[in-house]
Amino acid sequence: MSTAQPLHARHPLQERLQREASAEAIFRWATLCAAALVLVLLAGVLISLAYGAWPALKTFQWRFLATEVWNPVTRKFGALAPVYGTVVTSIIAMLIAIPIAFGIAVFLTETCPRWLRTPIAVAIELLAAIPSIVFGIWGLFILAPILQQYVQPWLIDHVGPLPLVGALFQGAPYGIGLLTAGIVLAIMVLPFITAVMREVFQMTPTSLKEAAYAAGATQWDVVWDIVLPWSRPGIIGGIMLGLGRALGETMAVTFVVGNAHRISTSLLAPGTTIAAAIANEFTEAVGDLYTSSLIALGLILFVLTFVVIAGARLLLLKLERGATRRSA
Amino acid sequence: MTKALRRRRFVSAVALGVSMLATVLGLAILGAILWTLVVKGFGGWSIAVFTQSTPAPQSEGGLLNAIFGSAVMTAIGIGIGAPVGVLAGTYLAEYGRRNKFTSTVRFINDVLLSAPSIVIGLFVYTVVVARMGHFSAIAGAISLAIISLPVIVRTTEDMLRLVPKSMREGSAALGAQPWRTVTNVVYPAARSGLITGMLLAIARISGETAPLLFTALNNQFWSTNLNGPMANLPAVIFLYAMSPYENWQALAWSGALLITLFVLVLSIIARSIAALFGAGQRGAP
């Protein structure tokens, strides 16, 4: 009987359990806060950009999006030239990168000997690890001179005289310009698009492919008529992911785009992109309206990439869910 | 063999041949970039690069202050980004497995993963630099932390999900609270995966340039002051490569080679760890 304790005295074990429970509450709360921080960051970026862009947007209103003029002296700013440059360089990048990425993904999933697959895939993905400033310096000192000496004169001489497309290849071969920026961007987004394509190609059910082979299809028939239709949403997702990267890429483009605030029909002419304009001018911008206009450019860029990347992720998510449902 | 079949076989052979050429082209570009870096950058490597600070035009110097600044800012960035990212990833994988909040956070995190880094720089400029009134290494480190965060959240969640449920159940059966299970059972089991994530995040932020341009700015001199502008490799490379001075351009190549080697070695180590320990690593390369 003497071992019995009064009811109000707490057993040491009970205290220990209490401590464990409060530690649990603290840990749980900390993880929740950290997760919420991700949302806070997104909101913070949007709000701070909108706040910073407000003076410019109030002054120029919708004309900000429709004017080509960018003149710090007369304090007239319009986003049209950088937006145009961003869109055009990204389109060039996509036109070059998509077929090459498709080829690499087909080679890696269909024809490549098994032992070579991982080394090649890793090598291509290492391209994505190279810092963008390295692409910039390589583009400026190596790629641009090659384009200037060999590729652009040929384009001007042979494609330039053609109707319609010819207009895109006029003027002098500067080396730097929208086309060069597009090519560098293509190299940079290539590993991202390839990785996604390879992944979705591998998700094609083997039974479908085997059935096609049994019906007498060639390897290419299987790729074109079975794998491609089956993985279409994933491919589009991968392309949009690459597009999102291309739109926001900064340093590589800043080196080779030429940084001229004007819109020219010719792809060989220097231009600018949103990211390049910000990187080039932000620290040198004098006056609130100039700074605010650059932040407004940033806001446009963020909204643009957000829409593209969110669309890509939604498509890929849908595909992933479909795959798990099918395999279950 | 009918004519149609022969034609189909021919098309197949040509198309697959072209796809092989595409692969060769991709590898050739990687090779060309690395080759240029080695040729142009290695020639400029000397003791001075690692022992002296950035020079004035046309004079001797090195990259010591820039290397130091990059290391400091990357370290602080990952020092902030890693703990927060691991905690957030823990919530997604352990506590909120199926709720709406989790799927929203996961989605937004994936979007932030590919958000343009220059916009993050603008954000840090408006909330930190503009408030403090001057550029600073701390602001640079904060922007790097923000960029590393989504990478770590994503890999942490993926890696924790690979830990078998039975281990958690065993721990719970012994009376452990979930936080004990996570810290004493799940984290050790996923350790190699978590390290992989951190290495990938370091690789990602150590080459970042755009957000540093208007947060840490640059500094021609040796500086250990976190509250002031600090030199960093990417900004120095940008400035020197665009300059007309030959010795500056040579230093830019040396810096580019240094940073690329660092990032590639880190990526390869991260991948080998992931491969060695059988943790299938997905998402951001």
List the defining traits of the structure above.
heterodimer; A: mainly alpha; two-stranded antiparallel ribbon; 12 helices; 2 strands; B: mainly alpha; 75% helix; globular
Q: In words, what does this structure look like?
A:
The complex is a heterodimer of chains A (328) and B (285). Chain A has 328 residues and is mainly alpha-helical. Chain A has twelve helices and two strands. A two-stranded antiparallel ribbon of chain A has the order 1-2. In chain A, helix 7 packs antiparallel against helix 8 (219-230). Chain B is mostly helical. In chain B, helix 9 runs antiparallel to helix 12 and helix 11 (233-241) packs antiparallel against helix 12 (246-276). Chain B is globular. Chain B starts with a helix and ends in a 9-residue tail after the last helix. The interface between A and B is large, with 96 and 91 residues.
- Approximately how much helix is present in the residues of chain A? over 70%
Tally the helices of chain B.
12
Report on the biggest sheet of chain B.
none
Number of strands of chain B: 0
Q: Which structural category do the helix and sheet elements of chain A fall into?
A: mainly alpha
**Largest sheet of chain A at a glance?**
2 strands, antiparallel
Largest interface: A-B, 96 and 91 residues
Count of separate DSSP helical elements of chain A: 12
Short description:
Chain A has 328 residues and is mainly α.
Topology of helices and strands:
The complex is a heterodimer of chains A (328) and B (285).
Chain A: H1 12-60, H2 63-66, E1 70-71, E2 76-77, H3 80-111, H4 114-129, H5 132-159, H6 178-202, H7 206-214, H8 219-230, H9 232-248, H10 251-256, H11 274-281, H12 288-327
Antiparallel strand pairs in A: 1-2
Helix pairs in contact in A: 1-12, 3-6, 3-9, 3-11, 4-6, 5-6, 6-9, 7-8, 9-12, 11-12
Chain B: H1 3-42, H2 47-51, H3 64-95, H4 100-113, H5 117-132, H6 137-162, H7 165-173, H8 178-189, H9 191-206, H10 210-213, H11 233-241, H12 246-276
Helix pairs in contact in B: 1-12, 3-6, 3-9, 4-6, 5-6, 6-9, 7-8, 9-12, 11-12
